[in-house]
Amino acid sequence: MTMLTEIPNIIIFGESGSGKSSVVNMLVGRPVAKTSSGVRGCTFDSCAYDVDVLGQPMKLWDTAGLDEGETGRIPHSKSVVNLYKLVLDLGSNGVSLLMFVTRPRFKDSTLKNWKLFHEIICQKKVPSVIIITGLELEEDRDEWWWKNRSELAEDYGITPDDHACITAVRGKSLRNGTHMFDEEFETSKERVQWVMRSRFSDPWRVSPPQWCQTIFKSTSETRWCGLRPPKTVVTEEEVIGEAFQQLIETGMSEEDVEELVEKFREAEQTRTD
């Protein structure tokens, strides 16, 4: 396994209610992230926790839950922009792993969130793993992955570098002082740690995606009814870039994409690095 002298940054993200906070608490070893069974998640930008993962110190960045927009078409823009700003602010320290936490039942926003951060913002250059929570009642949790991985790849385009199908809660207390899912919880923790330890890489230092690009056009103007050589006129035109087009391909409207890209550009101008 790789051992880095610099502490690698691990970003964990997911929708509100995905079990992300429970995974953070599992890895930290104490309840540091607020969990909620309500519709809305906790409101914050990001929090960093130092964790030891099988002998490798890591910095785990917990992020605000990604909610769907009011129309159900795009993630909550504030959470999305804050996560993008975090990636920018990590600057020279870079990002070594993305951890995407989700429930077994996927929504359209699940695909959008995955594509937005893994494919567009991080440009497929950061190793990414998927953590499936809420499998307490499955007799063989890992079997869920083998049954559904083809659908994830073919229908959703989600092809992570690794996975962990887990139980992130201990369950209700029993009379003997233990909890209903203690054993499942401990084996799940071991699995997540192994995935993190084996899949993180040298840090990738983000460079903003190509939202737009400038093209130059040359035209010739006839002068003096052709009595003089034509004059070449060069004009500039800004057109959508590859990343802008990728956002549209996630199903967002061009209007939504323009609004989101404008906020991304503002974040780029205020980066702390």
Automatic annotation (TrEMBL):
Q: Which residues cross the membrane?
A: none
Residue stretches making up the G domain: 10-79
Q: Which domain of life is it from?
A: Eukaryota
Return the Pfam families for the record.
MMR_HSR1
CDD domains found in the cross-reference section? Ras_like_GTPase
InterPro entries in the cross-refs = GTP-bd, P-loop_NTPase, Sigma_54_int_dom_ATP-bd_1
- GO terms, molecular function: GTP binding
User: What's the protein called, per UniProt?
Assistant: G domain-containing protein
Q: Which organism does this sequence originate in?
A: Macrolepiota fuliginosa MF-IS2
